[in-house]
């Protein structure tokens, strides 16, 4: 009965989250209605996290070139990831030239893995329908 | 009465969600592949290749005939290939990446035709007694391969290719007596300088 009630209330809310997605474990910082981690769901931030996942670290210019974006845009999104402790920022000097590099934290890597799991679960769930 | 428009967008239907999810996964994979090129080329590998090329140029200069000269450089090409693969493997392993990632595979496909053409033209030039033209031709071909393969890599790689093309052009028109110096400057010097820059800026 309780199960029936829960299902009815989901229908009443118009909850269309595919059933398979509810099996994705882990908690994202800021979740969308589908339970996605909004922080890395945004394209540029997803790109930054994906690029850093296959590199120990990347410089600001490398990321800018890879993402084909502007300095301001990249700074804003990198800062958000930094505030969420998904990436770390390291500022240093190469001779007299300042160099900013970013690296993915274990928490950021887990967030990306969760996101990938979520996407795969979403595809599986919608395919099974 | 006017139509009532929903304030919030209705949740996407399943096919749309599936398409978006697949698009997101594709984006992640492509970004990783593009970013993966940062680890594909080993700068230190290029430095080692440059050092072996300097020795090869010195050894080749002492050879009595053109065939022996070509043989020395052929041996150097094989050695350089092995060094490049070993260092790329080592770099990929330290970054927990497969050696033949998408970008590394594209680089391999870009280089293969250049090497095949280089071998065929070398044999043809030797048969016609045109070996003095080989240094320029090799550097032009190598530079072309590096520029093509560099399209999938960091910007410094195609720049290195362009430098090889420049030295190759010079070698074609300068006296044959300069060939040892030009080979040393090209396959030796350019590899050492650009390899060092790649290693410093792109993680080894």
Notes on the structure:
- The complex is a heterodimer of chains A (129) and B (204).
- Chain A has 129 residues and is an alpha+beta fold.
- In chain A, 55% of the residues lie in helices and 14% in strands.
- The N terminus of chain A is likely disordered.
- A 3-stranded antiparallel β-sheet of chain A has the order 1-3-2.
- The two termini of chain A are 24 Å apart.
- Chain A is elongated.
- Chain B is an all-alpha fold.
- Chain B is built from 7 helices and no strands.
- The model of chain B has no long low-confidence stretch (mean pLDDT 83).
Radius of gyration of chain B (CA) equals 23 Å
- Count helical runs of chain B: 7
pLDDT below 50 for ≥5 consecutive residues: which ranges of chain A?
A: 1-28
Shape type of chain B: elongated
**SSE string of chain A, helix = H, strand = E?**
HHHEHHEEH
Cα end-to-end separation of chain A: 24 Å
Secondary-structure element sequence of chain B? Answer: HHHHHHH
Beta-strand percent range of chain A: 5-15%
Q: Tell me, briefly, the overall form of chain A.
A: elongated
Average predicted local confidence, pLDDT of chain A = 77
Q: How many distinct beta strands of chain A?
A: 3
Query: How many extended strands of chain B?
Result: 0
Mean pLDDT of chain B: 83
The pair of chains with the biggest contact is:
A-B, 32 and 28 residues
Helical amount of chain B? over 70%
Q: How many angstroms does the end-to-end distance of chain B come to?
A: 69 Å
The value of Rg of chain A in angstroms is 18 Å
**Share of helical residues of chain A:** 55-70%
Secondary structure class of chain A reads alpha+beta
Strand order of the largest sheet of chain A: 1-3-2
Strand content of chain B: under 5%
